Amino acid sequence: xxxxxxxxxxxxxxxxxxxxxxxxxxxxxxxxxxxxxxxxxxxxxxxxxxxxxxxxxxxxxxxxxxxxxxxxxxxxxxxxxxxxxxxxxxxxxxxxxxxxxxxxxxxxxxxxxxxxxxxxxxxxxxxxxxxxxxxxxxxxxxxxxxxxxxxxxxxxxxxxxxxxxxxxxxxxxxxxxxxxxxxxxxxxxxxxxxxxxxxxxxxxxxxxxxxxxxxx
Length: 216
Hints:
The chain is mainly α. The protein has two domains: 4-117, no CATH class; 127-213, no CATH class. It has twelve helices and no strands. It has helices at 4-17, 22-25, 32-45, 49-57, 62-68, 73-93, 99-117, 127-141, 145-151, 157-163, 168-188, 194-213. Helix 8 (127-141) packs across helix 11 and helix 11 (168-188) packs antiparallel against helix 12 (194-213). It is elongated and about 70 Å long.
């Protein structure tokens, strides 16, 4: 699992590769820059930083998390860019950057944020999301994730669950439960309407039906 520091490191790597150096430009250590972006994302989404990190660790992109919270991806990007711009503005005011240099960095920052928002920041691509599904499914079925992977060769999750005396509907409920809990929280906080939550659950239900019945 990746903590906030490691996720920050992933963001930092992208920032340095893009030549942003927001933190360095203000005289701070470079690794402060990803912290600024992560904090801005959490504030915009109305989440605690630890909660956002947990969602990212599960394999979700920032864009997916924003949608689940009833927020727009464009708004998320704007919030992150604004946080970076504030740091750069301070650097210009302090004479550490010229206006021209700031403009160049802002252009790079915009491109970087667009990539970060739509990328999985676990450092493991889509494997983190799949691993989470396997863990939940294995727990419901009553076997280890490793044993589940072995049994899935040539079988579907539905077939494995049935072979262990479990129901397909029960497996689906177990898989959808974490997502539903997050949506319920978003509805309670007023970040998303009940109708929107139901629509998202319907889409997820359809995807899970396909996932559960897919033969590996």
